[in-house]
């Protein structure tokens, strides 16, 4: 298996970042919450941004259009 590591600190691969993005993590901060990538030395954050910018996040279109995503809707609902 060919593993391309994005985050050396935590051993997170590009495939894992893409999987988290498919599961709804559309920002580097959400990726960090899902797998800790980018939370130690921070050198992988730009790479994570690039992966997300290449369409790894299926909700990116909604975010770019200013439409609320499910997590934002839940936050709005809880605030009410």
UniProtKB/TrEMBL annotation:
Domain of life where this protein originates: Bacteria
Pfam families with a match to the protein in the record: Fer2_BFD
Any one GO molecular-function label of the UniProt entry: metal ion binding
Keyword terms: 2Fe-2S, Electron transport, Iron, Iron-sulfur, Metal-binding, Transport
Keyword match Acetylation: no
Domain BFD-like [2Fe-2S]-binding: 6-53
InterPro entries (alphabetical): BFD-associated_ferredoxin, BFD-like_2Fe2S-bd_dom, BFD-like_2Fe2S-bd_dom_sf
Annotated PANTHER family: BACTERIOFERRITIN-ASSOCIATED FERREDOXIN
Protein name per its UniProtKB record: Bacterioferritin-associated ferredoxin
UniProt source species: Streptomyces dysideae
Lineage summary: Bacteria, Bacillati, Actinomycetota, Actinomycetes, Kitasatosporales
